[in-house]
Design a protein that fits this description.
Order of helices and strands: EEEEEEEEEEE
Largest sheet: 7 strands, mixed
Strand content: over 45%
Helix content: under 10%
Radius of gyration: 13 Å
Shape: globular
Distance between the termini: 40 Å
Amino acid sequence: QVQLAESGGGLVQPGGSRTLSCLASGFPLGRYSVAWFRQAPGKEREGVSCSRSMDSSTHYADSVKGRFTISRDNAKNTVYLQMKTLKPEDTAIYYCALELLGRCGWAFTDYEYWGQGTPVTVSS
């Protein structure tokens, strides 16, 4: 069975850094695109970053460009989201998601499998 499990969330001070992990099981991670989404209370789920398998490219939402970095360790079947210079508006539950076609879409409906999320709170 395809499973995704996020970890690494928690409380972070504004301006701080945090790295999230998404452990994949049931499939070879390198064949598929994997994205990070986030959802804050009362807000729509938004795409944050995506690692596209078809061309090995990475993509970022404008709100996180220059601050967040997505990376893969295919040997560990894990995707990471390195976050720096965190802002209070980054507070959300962060999800990883799998796209079977190897693309990177920005709509959550493009993704077939989801983890349960890990919360990130940016506050002093």
